[in-house]
């Protein structure tokens, strides 16, 4: 017989950081009588909970500041580093819960010494220290103290009651948990009220291609959510780099050449990638926006050839030469693409929940790519999002049968602003 899950202690939202010469002490200031302070030794980076704050003296004067979350800890060659949030900004709400953006991160060294390190270790530590400074400036990081940002609305709704009783970090989708590795040291110590899941929002272009397991670079899940008239509705799209081994070595040319690595493995890697997508999202429609010239053309041909053996009723591949058809300004020609994918979108739908908990589910996903999964992908996903939003509004009763977003200048302008923000973030 299973034990009944106990209610989870809420995450701490405000803490006082005491920086003593020999330890850091993090004191929750939420007002909970059950709150214990977290002490981190600067001798061996060990952690323990305490019900009191160490005494101060003229020889032991701490620096004190407010923090709003513990992001985690990293262990490097010369010691460990603690990541904390020193500034946050509320940027909106998700299903009624406040969402915060990290404005400022601080990296605090613990047990930092390179005295007994080899020259190679010192070199590595210097490089890591430089990267930590970069990490402090990482943008697009978001979190919530109350709800799981790593799951779509549909997956969040489908969580069982027992799963909903788990701490947020245990509910999290590993693919989108930005600080997964950094939380491990705190997880081992069972410090649940301090374990704050962080996600990185916005599109990105850090790497290209895939690994041998089919995990692609620049993989982003985009969700639009509506809450109106007692309805909650959402629609998910994904993007990701072309799913086989390829690279682009940066040189002094305007467009460096693309190199396909181990082309014979492309079909197997693509198959693994799309098998994972089908397990996660159901049916998949892969929309390839590459052009058919030069290096892009070779990549597109390789993608098309890799897809041929695995396409099925639940997995479609469609090439659409965005540059040739739309150029730089004729985005209205994306209607040609929509005509080819409308049947998939209608068949697989979107998530919809009413006040009586009656629901429709999204049964498949469109996966879009160009070279960097940026401009062409953004424009295409915005077109799809707009079409689905109109379908959602008609279903909910906000729009009549033939009504469109363009029929409402203010709504149209608002959507275009959101579309522009899509490019920025």
Automatic annotation (TrEMBL):
Any one GO BP annotation for this protein: phosphatidylinositol dephosphorylation
One GO CC annotation: endoplasmic reticulum
Any one GO molecular-function label of the UniProt entry: phosphatidylinositol-4-phosphate phosphatase activity
Keyword Transmembrane helix: yes
Residue stretches spanning the membrane: 66-84
Organism: Gossypium darwinii
Keyword entries, A-Z: Membrane, Transmembrane, Transmembrane helix
UniProt key word Nucleus: no
This protein's name: SAC domain-containing protein
Domain named SAC: residues: 132-425
Lineage of origin: Eukaryota, Viridiplantae, Streptophyta, Embryophyta, Tracheophyta
InterPro entries named among the record's database cross-references: SAC_dom
């Amino acid at each position: 017989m299973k034990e009944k899950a106990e209610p989870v202690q809420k995450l701490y939202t405000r803490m006082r950081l005491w920086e003593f010469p020999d330890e850091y002490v993090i004191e929750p200031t939420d007002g909970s009588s059950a709150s214990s302070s977290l002490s981190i030794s600067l001798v061996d980076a060990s952690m323990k909970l305490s019900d009191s704050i160490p005494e101060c003296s003229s020889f032991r004067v701490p620096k004190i500041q407010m923090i709003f979350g513990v992001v985690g800890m990293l262990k490097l060659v010369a010691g460990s580093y603690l990541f904390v949030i020193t500034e946050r900004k509320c940027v909106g709400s998700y299903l009624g819960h406040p969402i915060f953006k990290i404005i400022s991160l601080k990296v605090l060294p613990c047990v930092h010494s390179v005295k007994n390190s080899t020259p190679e270790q010192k070199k590595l530590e210097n490089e890591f220290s430089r990267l930590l400074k970069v990490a402090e400036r990482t943008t697009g990081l978001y979190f919530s103290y109350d709800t799981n940002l790593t799951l779509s609305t549909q997956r969040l709704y489908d969580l069982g009651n027992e799963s909903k009783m788990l701490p947020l970090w245990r509910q999290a989708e590993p693919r989108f948990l930005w600080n997964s590795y950094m939380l491990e040291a705190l997880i081992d110590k069972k410090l649940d009220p301090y374990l704050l899941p962080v996600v990185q929002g916005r599109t990105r272009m850090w790497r290209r291609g895939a690994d041998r397991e089919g995990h692609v670079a620049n993989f982003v899940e985009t969700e639009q959510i509506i809450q109106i008239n007692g309805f909650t509705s959402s629609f998910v799209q994904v993007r990701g780099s072309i799913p086989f081994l390829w690279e682009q070595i940066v040189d002094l040319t305007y467009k460096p050449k693309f190199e396909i690595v181990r082309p014979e493995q492309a079909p197997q890697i693509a198959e693994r990638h799309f098998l994972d997508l089908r397990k996660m999202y159901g049916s998949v429609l892969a929309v390839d926006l590459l052009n058919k010239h030069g290096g892009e053309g070779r990549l597109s041909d390789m993608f098309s050839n890799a897809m041929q053996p695995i396409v099925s009723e639940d997995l479609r591949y469609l090439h659409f030469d965005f540059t040739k058809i739309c150029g730089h300004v004729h985005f209205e020609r994306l209607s040609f693409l929509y005509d080819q994918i409308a049947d998939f979108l209608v068949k697989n739908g979107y998530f919809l929940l009413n006040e009586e908990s009656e629901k429709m589910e999204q049964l498949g996903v469109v996966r879009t790519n160009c070279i960097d999964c940026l401009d062409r992908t953004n424009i295409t996903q915005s077109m799809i999002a707009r079409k689905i939003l109109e379908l959602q509004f008609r279903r909910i009763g906000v729009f009549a049968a033939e009504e469109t977003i363009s029929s409402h200048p203010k709504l149209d302008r608002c959507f275009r602003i959101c579309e522009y923000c899509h490019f920025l973030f």
